[in-house]
Amino acid sequence: MSNDSSNTLRSLIYNLDTTTTPPKATLSVLDQLLLPHNTAYIPIHTVSDAWTVIRTMQIRGAPLIAIVAVLGLAVDLTSNADTVSSLQNKSVDEIKQVIGEKMEYLKTSRPTAVNLFNAMEELSNIIIMDTSLDTREALLEKLTSHASYMLERDVSDNKLIGSHGADDILANRESDVKVQVITICNTGSLATAGWGTALGVARELCERGRMDGIACLETRPYNQGSRLTAYEILVEKMPNPTLLCDSMTSSFLANKVNPSNTVCIVGADRVCANGDTANKIGTFQLAIIAKEFGVDFYVASPFTTLDVKLASGKQIEIEERPAGELLESSCAPKDMRCWNPGFDVTPARYITGIITEKGVLRRSEDGTFDVKEFVEKHS
Ligand code: MRU
């Protein structure tokens, strides 16, 4: 088995050799810190390698973080000589304990995106809780086959998100109208196993010939918009690509585009039971600007990003990044004090709809989102 993203930028290369028992997995990930000027893949041999590329943001984006953790675990347990030999004389219960410890470690890499935690829980239910897996081979076979399934599912879910999102956005528009998209951060092939969430919706609009243009926000201070999304939309040859500093959005809407044909589409790292949504820092102010101009503001994310365990955005842990990242990307004196949160929470009242692979959740008549009901209905 090999992941084939030949029609997209490849955020990772994964191979599973099923001719051996148990199968052997190999993985390398695209170093996103080198983009857009250099392309280099980093080999992942251990869970520690996977943790490091997540922590240092050599890979990033909520779905990709989860997938790299899952595949990193599969590689470590099946192809890393040290782990393989240490498991040789262990009982199935002891191996399950080792897997559990490695999962706990992976969960310490980054805190805000819930996808990582949900992926570890899903894998734990499949591997650790299944008492019928009573040999090392059966356990590792199940781990690798489920990891492959999660990888393929990420891409197919993204494509569904794209088509549901495009359907909803175009539903009340004349068939000759083309849409101007504004997006923030990077939510494309580089943030996922392939295709993308918010950028996947944009790709679908493009494929349907219904996109007039796309503006990506630079996304200060880490610049995922200018380094990654600008690169992706050029590779994808999307129409009228435009890069904006985050602070230019209101002027862009006031002067350059028709707000009634414009739509904001953003990704998500966690969507709470009331619809409050954590996403890249700057998303909240984009939502406020969208509301001022009457522009629809959509959140696009996999179903696994919905976290109904949290009642509201106040409960989301927001990652604080090192001050140095902000200092390095600005011209500030090096001893300047900084606050550098990686994410913010957009209150649900600013959101038009939440696009998932199961469909689009819109507000109830009272103006609120019932994410819990949506999750129960589609689980
Ligand atoms: O810090 P990052 O680059 O991991 O943040 C990424 C985002 O905030 C994305 O918008 C989000 O993860 C959705 S990616 C499909």
From TrEMBL:
**Which enzyme class?**
isomerase
Location comes to: Cytoplasm; Nucleus
Q: Where is this site: Transition state stabilizer?
A: C185
Q: Which SUPFAM superfamilies match?
A: NagB/RpiA/CoA transferase-like
Q: Which GO terms describe its biological process?
A: L-methionine salvage from methylthioadenosine
The answer to whether keyword Transmembrane applies is no
Q: Mind listing the GO molecular function terms for this protein?
A: S-methyl-5-thioribose-1-phosphate isomerase activity
The alphabetized UniProt keywords are:
Amino-acid biosynthesis, Cytoplasm, Isomerase, Methionine biosynthesis, Nucleus
Q: Which reaction does it catalyse?
A: 5-(methylsulfanyl)-alpha-D-ribose 1-phosphate = 5-(methylsulfanyl)-D-ribulose 1-phosphate
Residues the record marks as active site: D269 (proton donor)
Q: Would you name any one GO CC term?
A: nucleus
As for family, the record states: Belongs to the eIF-2B alpha/beta/delta subunits family. MtnA subfamily.
Question: What is this protein's name?
Answer: Methylthioribose-1-phosphate isomerase
- Source species, please? Cyclotella atomus
